[in-house]
Model the fold of this input.
Amino acid sequence: TLEMVDRLLQGMTWTGNPVDTGRPSETFPEIVSAVATDSNVDVIALYALDEPTALDPADAIDRSGVLGTIPVVFASTGPTGALADLESRLAARSVPLFDEPARAAKAVWALVADARARWRWSVAVEAEASQIDYLVIERTLSEDGLKDLLDTCGVRTTRRIVCDTHDEALAAFDAIGAPVVVKVINDEILHKTEVGGVHVEIREVAHLTAALAAIDAIPVEVRGRYLVESQAPRGAELLVGAVRDASFGPVITLGLGGVDVELIDRSVSRLVPITVIDASEMIESLPSALLSGHRGAAPLPRDELLHLLMLVSRLIEISSAVSEIDLNPVRVADGVLTVLDAAVICG
Done:
């Protein structure tokens, strides 16, 4: 292709990519045709000043023979009236006209993004929907209820016991073994940490009693229950969430998590439903130190996280009543993924 273009231009200008044709000559259509038929080229972006005596863009594109074989965008600079007539003629050929090169470049970017999206769908591996489709969420679930659902779908959560009284919490503490985490279960409370509803590293009965008393002191209309669960090993924390946006519909997000998630602001989002390729790209956006294992830690279990992303995407897609799913934090420790906190909101 380069040799052909160089021959057509007789060595006068740059013949790489992009090709500089100089002031367009009679060989312009042949140059366009040569570039368009190169197997490495997927879209043609043309730019020329409005010089009717040197080039008739519509006629040149017709003679190039590229129409219908490859996308073509055209940019030009010239009098408004002249460009309006040219725009009409090019539109009849399904070639858009832009009044500056930068806008044509954005149009090419949009074509590339659309092609990538179509490719992702063409090679997408469907989610394991046979089991998930029977697990439609129709009402707001407690943390324990959502974790039960995650357990059913093969997602690791902590060992836990729901308790109605202090005595039951003490028995759960003995059954699970120190250290434990104690949380409030109450539909009135979404962010438990902010109201003193989460107590970690409970190793003694006295600490447990104090935690239960602190939960009892939270101002709520209806007294809640207690969730006693095993303390997970220390590790990095992620957020996996989904919301039903008023404009875009369901959107899924992956990012660094924990109590300071608003301060970190390191996340990536995709429209639901996602494909396995989408989920993989989201995972690869995480810090490389987390992916490979920071300071001797085991690498991130990509397969487990991919499964979790596909699951959350599928759940909010098929559960029309769900407005939000929030899994934060999702702890990464010893090469495994564990959901430590989970919330779902309907309505």
Notes: The chain has 13 helices and 13 strands. The radius of gyration is 30 Å. The mean pLDDT is 89.
